[in-house]
Please model this.
Amino acid sequence: MNLSKKHCVPCEGIGQPLSKEGAEKLLKELPGWELSADAKNISRQLKMRNFMAAVKLIGRIAEIAEAEDHHPDIHLTGYRNLRVDLSTHALKGLSENDFIVAAKINELPLELKA
Model:
């Protein structure tokens, strides 16, 4: 399954969140991402080369989020430490949409600290 080639589908008020087992299966396709203990979100932490590299990546993530109409929480601390959290708020848990957006983020060029 190539998640990065898929597109998010509207999920307002329909469906159920993924089970922990379902989330763990999809997570195997996403290097660098971690499943929360309660299996309600996935996150990735990145140490960027500098502040501008972090801000540039945030912009690229925003473009993906807008195109897919599925938006992550993005945290920038310590001027270059970036954390991206994905969850489907309408379902109060994870959906395939979260994994699709994460896969697209993984395809972005990253200017990480060497």
Observations:
- The longest strand covers residues 42-47.
- The chain has a mean pLDDT of 95.
- The domain at 40-114 is CATH 3.30.1360.20 (Gyrase A; domain 2).
